[in-house]
Amino acid sequence: MIEVASLSKSYGSVRAVDDASFTVRPGVVTGFLGPNGAGKSTTMRMIMGLDRPTSGTALICGRPIAEHRAPLAVVGAHLDPRSFTPGRSARSHLSAVAASNGISRRRVDEVLELTGIASVARKRPKGFSLGMSQRLGLATALLGDPATLLLDEPVNGLDVDGVRWIRELARSLAAEGRAVLLSSHLMSEVEQTADHVVVIGRGRILADKPLSEFVSASDDGAVEIASTDDARLAQVLANAGASVAPLGGIAVSGLPASRIGQLAADAGVALTRVHEPSRSLEDAYLALTRDEVQYQSTPKESVK
Amino acid sequence: MTAVISRRTRGATLGAIVRSELIKIRSMRSTWVGLVALLGVATLVTTLSSTKVAGVATPDVFAGWILTVFQVGLLLTTAFFAVQTASEWSTGMARTTFAAVPARGRWVAGRVIACALGGAVAALAVVAAVLGLGTLVHSAGAEALGPETYGLLWQAPLALGLMSGFSAALAVLVRNAWLAVGALFTLQFVLGIVSATLLTWFLQVMPYLPFDLAGTVLHASQAGADLAGAPGAGLAIVLLVAWAVGTAVVAAIVSRRRDGA
Predict the structure, then answer these.
(1) B155-212 per-position pLDDT tens digit
(2) Chain B neighbors of A78, CB-CB under 8 A
(3) Where are the domains of chain A?
(4) Regions of chain A with pLDDT less than 70
(5) Do B9 and A144 touch (CB under 8 A)?
(6) Which family does it belong to (chain A) (predicted)?
(7) Do B260 and A66 count as a contact with CB atoms less than 8 A apart?
């Protein structure tokens, strides 16, 4: 379990992380989302003890990481795909990291097989693609068979098979009772992998809730309908307390689809289309972080 | 649901960290290229010097060759370990290292010990190469071992090992290969020139700086090695240990307080 409490980090006058508190529970994949520069990586680095917090604490399995006797068994981190010496072979890299925690060489072979890079174990990773480097980073994180995993953008550069493998790996590790914190810009990936999401924007935690709750909380419940007499039906629905808006038919908020159908039947208007659009994680995320994006592109038309 | 805690690891003990750092050192091609280069210098010096020996080479001749090699070897080896240690940061490896060993002080100690062992082994290899080749070239009843060469069997590994550890600690402190090598060159060359030309009072301090102390240790068993103002061999060893350990302690403290890996 990871417990982050009132964690803050300032660089001069810039507040990179501002009083962040959240918990990553065992048995759950927690998605860590936020725009570029929101403070995701800084938070993960502070959890791993790579950066010193200005204030607050980050505990892994009840203690700061530096106080654990065997850190690799407690937490495996993959924070950057290029966290190795390019001139040292993949096997030697893993052997050196394993030796630092008294992990056997047999485990090195196991993680090489598990991550699919056994065939290039003797090669130096300076020639590795981004995907291969990701796999080496993941192999390093898995060396100690850890209770907690921190994965920062692990699917970047991976092919379709690799992405699916990471998804299944994260889910299977959580199913074994491990706590998994996974940051990604790919909403579809997080949606398919995570059970819980923590959203950060401009250093502040904007949301910390189960994925389904996060997505449904941002749902305005609008129902899109079309009928044989849109004008009359709109009047009926408005009289029943709904908000209506023209949308190539009618967009109705404030009434469930079943009640809309009942009112239409009572008014003698036949419905030709009823659509309850489902909100995705991406919709919910964009709605929440709209005002928190630090680096925003300008649409092409408005540049002219 | 309870968390899974692995039993696959024995923990990040100092011994484990030293083993890890030794694997890092020996798994780099540059380590072996550097060692071959050092042995090449040793072979060249021995071959060139042996042509000037009339008859049979004596232990003091062998010792002289070894000391000539170490004039170059000391700087090459310290620069090598400084660059290799600083590369932890330039390559991003430090992120992995500190995720595996978050206790910075223990890691610095492990790294310094591993580099010291590496330097000592390189020194022994050079001594063995010079003695072996020298004996081979002057095989006509040559006796390579005497008090001078016996002394170098422990003096050379000790001096080179401590200096390698010192340079590794210096590299952790500055986290930059160029700065670390620059600091070593300043200690070896620039301070000597400055003190000789501008600050003559500094000449009294020079014998207590790391390279001069290493030179004192290396020459400890040589006849007429005592230099005016230089500490004795015993004190030189103690001071060299103090330089290596002191720099490592400062590096560990600074490393714990500093962001970034």
Answers:
(1) 899 999 999 999 999 999 999 999 999 998 888 788 777 877 777 777 777 888 898 8
(2) none
(3) 2-216, 220-275
(4) 218-220, 290-304
(5) yes
(6) Belongs to the ABC transporter superfamily.
(7) no
What part of A 143-162 touches B (C-beta under 8 Å)? 144-148
The Cα–Cα gap between A139 and B207 comes to: 49
Q: What's the token pair of residue B128?
A: 């063995």
CATH class of A2-216: alpha beta
CB contact under 8 A, A100 and B20: yes
**CB contact (8 A) between residue B3 and residue A178:** yes
Residue A63 is classified by DSSP as B
Residue A121: name the closest of A107, A136, A131 by CA.
A136
Question: Which structure tokens are listed for A37?
Answer: 């520069």
The tokens of B240 are what?
């060299």
Complex ipTM value = 0.88
Residues of A in contact with B7 (CB under 8 A): 73
CB A183 within 8 A of CB A16: no
How far away is chain A from the Cα of B12, in angstroms, using its nearest Cα?
4
Query: What Rg do the C-alpha atoms of chain B give, in angstroms?
Result: 20
| pLDDT value at residue B145 | 75
pTM of the model: 0.84
